[in-house]
């Protein structure tokens, strides 16, 4: 079987990667397959064929299997050598949209970057990545995609034995901030230059003619990240492990480990079991992304200006407005979610007041914003029971603002619902689906997946999936699963 792969990354200097084959598994069984995504990539496979290929047992003949080198700051501490310790790139496919995408197996066995790891992945975390990445895609947020999960028929040993699996991930590329760091830390300017040229050619072709390509790239990556983080904030997404090796230079959400969606609004929310200091809390994500981008900037300084002080100054000018830019994107989104078709200076205060009330009332982020659309649709009806009582005075101010806005109620509600999802993959639902899958029942996973693939639709027969957890259903911690 041939996929029609291209191999642009494999063609880069040999020290950027290591050729390595997947380790075959005992009894591959296809658990979930993303047929629409496969079709977008020009693939058409039968079930048994897909299991053999996406387990790594029989890679496509035209794959050029390799593990990528990268480094990274993990919780602020630099680790000079990470790399694909349990993943292999098969090659790149050009989708229907003309964009080249990596196809990578994750959990496919040991590589020269595995250190003490087994190179494997457990079924639960791989299904979690599938579910959350496809939910993010359906929400309209740039992300890596998931093409398949294959159960291996083998156990992996974490704190306990768990069923193993391989995920096939599709990404605009797997080049991370940490990829640049790997070579910069070794003083290998030639490799950084090769990466720089490659990333511009692949992800930012418009910058080829820029006066200072490295600076233009830093600026473009920064802009994509600002938009991305604002999108995470919009839907209450908490990445959980924003290490520099988990930040894509293409601007996609990548590496779904302990990530989770917030239920009740609290900017301090942290789910990850390993994030003790709250470094990656919901409201810290903009500052952390900026910190990560500063690490990228450091690797690019020699290409920005031969005079280091001047290079630093120029990089600063690019990075300084980052947090304000995220806030700006967030405010623009909030205006639309509140049904305003125009921008007024006092809107920022109105949004701030809303956030304050929601935090005090521990109101559900997703439900509240969606319910406001219902109120806007029928301005004369009493406010819905999904809104916290404490919101009364704020609702009055909001209605006064709406009264001066030209949109009709129907137009307004449509616009609001287009940005305020009804369905997110809530932690307690995700956990229940993964627990069932581990016990051999995949139905809850498939049902939840189908719900979160249509996040903005009403889905009247699925209303229970909108609900936040009851106190006893709350999932307070999530785990990396590595
Ligand atoms: P992550 O926490 O998934 O971002 O992974 C951080 C680093 O640990 C990467 O270099 C991974 O390749 C590596 N890693 C994670 N889990 C394993 C594993 N089971 N075996 C080998 N390497 C792993
Ligand atoms: Mg990672």
Name the features:
482 residues, alpha+beta, 6-stranded antiparallel β-sheet, 12 strands, 13% strand, binds adenosine monophosphate, binds magnesium ion
Structure summarized in a few sentences:
This protein has helices spanning 35-40, 47-54, 123-138, 177-185, 189-203, 213-235, 285-304, 308-319, 322-337, 347-361, 365-377, 392-403, 409-417, 427-438, 443-452, and strands at residues 17-19, 29-33, 66-68, 72-74, 77-79, 87-94, 100-106, 121-122, 145-157, 161-171, 237-238, 260-261. It has 482 residues and is of the alpha+beta class. It is globular and about 65 Å long.
SSE string, helices as H and strands as E: EEHHEEEEEEHEEHHHEEHHHHHHHHH
Question: Uncertain spans, ≥5 residues at pLDDT below 50?
Answer: none
Bound molecules: adenosine monophosphate, magnesium ion
Helical content band: 40-55%
Beta-strand content bin: 5-15%
Into how many domains do the coordinates divide?
Answer: 3
Distance between the termini: 31 Å
Task: Profile the largest sheet.
Answer: 6 strands, antiparallel
From the alpha carbons, calculate the radius of gyration and give it in angstroms.
23 Å
Arithmetic mean of pLDDT = 97
Structural class: alpha+beta
Number of separate helices: 15
Instruction: Count every beta strand, where a strand is a DSSP E run of 2 or more residues.
Output: 12
Overall shape: it is globular
């Amino acid at each position: 079987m041939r996929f029609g792969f291209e191999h642009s990354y494999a063609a880069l200097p040999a020290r950027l990667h290591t050729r390595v084959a997947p380790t075959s598994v005992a009894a591959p069984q296809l658990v979930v397959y993303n047929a629409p995504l496969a079709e977008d990539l020009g693939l058409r496979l039968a079930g048994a064929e897909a299991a053999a290929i996406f387990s790594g047992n029989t890679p496509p003949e035209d794959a050029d299997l390799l593990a990528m080198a990268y480094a990274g700051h993990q919780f602020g501490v630099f680790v000079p050598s990470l790399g694909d310790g349990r993943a292999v790139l098969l090659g790149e496919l050009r989708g229907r949209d003309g964009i080249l995408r990596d196809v990578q197996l994750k959990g496919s066995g040991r590589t020269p970057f595995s250190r003490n790891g087994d190179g494997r992945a457990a079924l639960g975390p791989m299904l979690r990545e599938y579910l959350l990445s496809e939910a993010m895609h359906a929400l309209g947020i740039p992300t890596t995609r998931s093409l398949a999960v294959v159960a291996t028929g083998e156990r992996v040993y974490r704190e306990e034995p768990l069923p193993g699996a391989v995920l096939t991930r599709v990404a605009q590329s797997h080049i991370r901030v940490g990829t640049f760091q790997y070579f910069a830390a070794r003083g290998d300017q030639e490799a950084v230059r090769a990466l720089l040229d490659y990333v511009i050619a692949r992800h930012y072709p418009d910058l080829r003619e820029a006066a200072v390509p490295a600076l233009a790239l830093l600026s473009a990556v920064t802009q994509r990240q600002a938009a991305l983080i604002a999108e995470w904030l919009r839907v209450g997404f908490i990445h959980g492990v924003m290490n520099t090796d988990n930040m894509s230079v293409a601007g996609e959400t990548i590496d779904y480990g302990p990530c989770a969606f917030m239920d009740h609004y609290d900017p301090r929310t942290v789910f990850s079991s390993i994030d003790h200091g709250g470094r990656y809390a919901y409201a810290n994500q903009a500052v952390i992304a900026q910190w990560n981008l500063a690490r990228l900037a450091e690797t690019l300084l020699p290409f920005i200006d031969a005079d280091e002080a001047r290079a630093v100054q120029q990089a600063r000018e690019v990075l300084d407005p980052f947090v304000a830019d995220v806030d700006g994107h967030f405010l623009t989104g909030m205006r639309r979610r509140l049904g305003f078709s125009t921008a007024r200076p006092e809107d920022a205060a109105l949004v701030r007041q809303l956030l304050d009330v929601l935090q005090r009332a521990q109101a559900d982020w997703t439900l509240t914003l969606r319910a406001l659309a219902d109120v806007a649709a029928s301005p004369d009806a009493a406010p819905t029971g999904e809104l916290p009582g404490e919101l009364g005075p704020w609702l009055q101010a909001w209605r006064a603002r709406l009264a001066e806005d030209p949109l009709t109620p129907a137009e307004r509600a449509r616009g609001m619902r287009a940005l305020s999802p009804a369905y997110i993959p809530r932690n307690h639902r995700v956990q229940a689906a993964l627990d069932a899958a581990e016990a051999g029942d995949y139905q809850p996973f498939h049902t939840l997946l189908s719900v979160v693939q249509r996040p903005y639709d009403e889905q009247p027969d699925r209303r229970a999936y909108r609900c936040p957890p009851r106190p006893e259903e709350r999932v307070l911690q999530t785990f990396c699963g590595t």
